[in-house]
Amino acid sequence: MTISWTDEQGHSRQLAWLSAAQQAAPQRVLAVDDRCTADAAYRELSQGTALLWQGDYHNARQLLQAITRRIARSAAKGARKPAAALAPTERFHRERLARAQRARLLGQLLLPCEPGYHIALRRAPDVQAACEAAYGPSPAVPFALSLRELLGVLGAWQWFLRGVEVPALGARIHPHYGVFAPVRSEYLDLLAAAALPAPPPQSAFDIGTGSGVIAALLARRGIPRIVATDLSPAALACARDNLTRLGVSAGVSVEEADLYPEGRADLVVCNPPWLPGRAASALDAAVYDPDSRMLRGFLDGLRAHLNPGGEGWLILSDLAEHLGLRSREELLGWISKAGLRVLGRSEIAPRHPRASAVDDPLHEARAAERTALWRLAAA
């Protein structure tokens, strides 16, 4: 894919297009530089025109921040009802729509790059290592990418270098780009504290392993044979990397699979996305589960993949219930329909900052949220 525009001399120009999120190349592009005001930029973006920046790199970042403020002001003016007047479900959908529209607009401020991930702008930073981790080898021709996406790549690179401290592991997990970081550690505390089935399980499945943190925790708890599955190539590579870093890779097999691997296990653990809804990006896929596909697939397949006397552990937040997206009765119905019974349930309150942020439009739901570990067995 390519983008095309006309320069100030009237010459037609073209660049290859690069997007880790596989976003389509913008159809209308206007070249701008430091002379472009935030108001003019916002007007062009709102009309569907992408802006190819040709000025100073730091000025481009400041412009992005200025446009973000204008988007927020416009959204506040255009809201027909204040958030407090809406039902929780309406509030949630309005916030999702606003975030999607903001991401679409901000994603249209573009940067020109040379092969080797060299940003062809004044005062541009060295982004080669971060970009190679996210995109792979550099294109061999000049190309353009989204500044907003690049900032996400650079942020993810810092997460990877520093790692995320996981108290339940007593170690750090290093998330790769496009793989959800285990920043909400309360669900891992539930997993670490839950009593293992008796006799002690000799095998376990970690369904949808992501960063590999659950498989690592199960290995640290002494389960000798673990199979961790995922469909995402980025997640599979990330899990293998973290399991090797933690010194537990010998007992864990990481396999590409849509939910279950072959065979049965004494313990099957799944932490599916907590909210039903369409995922708009790779990171979204760790939060949103279209039609609760993964949740229902885990429940429907669990009985056939448990050894006699085995248990399935479902880690799930009830945020969807507080937002009116799924009821507790619906979840219990799916469990019963899958031929399962509930052995027990433990829960924990969230500790992340948004749970106490009173200015968050979803504050009431977040404050009431609890994350639970459901212990399931064949009925």
Mind explaining what this structure looks like?
- With 379 residues, the chain is an alpha/beta fold.
- The chain has two domains: 2-158, no CATH class; 164-378, 3-Layer(aba) Sandwich (Rossmann fold).
- It is 35% helix and 24% strand.
- The chain contains twelve helices and 18 strands.
- The chain has helices at residues 38-46, 57-78, 88-106, 128-135, 147-162, 186-193, 213-220, 233-245, 293-302, 319-322, 328-337, 363-368, and strands spanning 2-6, 12-17, 29-32, 50-53, 109-114, 118-119, 143-146, 164-166, 171-173, 203-207, 225-230, 252-256, 265-270, 275-276, 288-289, 306-317, 340-348, 371-378.
- The strands form four sheets. Strands 1, 2, 3, 4, 5, 6 and 7 form a seven-stranded mixed beta sheet that branches. It has a seven-stranded mixed beta sheet with strand order 12-11-10-13-16-18-17, with helices on both faces. Strands 8-9 form a two-stranded antiparallel ribbon.
- Helix 1 (38-46) crosses helix 2 and helix 4 crosses helix 5 (147-162).
- It starts with a strand and ends with a strand.
- The mean pLDDT is 93.
- InterPro entries: DNA_methylase_N6_adenine_CS, N5-glutamine_MTase, SAM-dependent_MTases_sf, Small_mtfrase_dom.
- One of its GO terms (biological process) is methylation.
- Residues 173-315 form the Methyltransferase small domain.
- It comes from Pseudothauera lacus.
- GO terms for molecular function: nucleic acid binding; protein-glutamine N-methyltransferase activity.
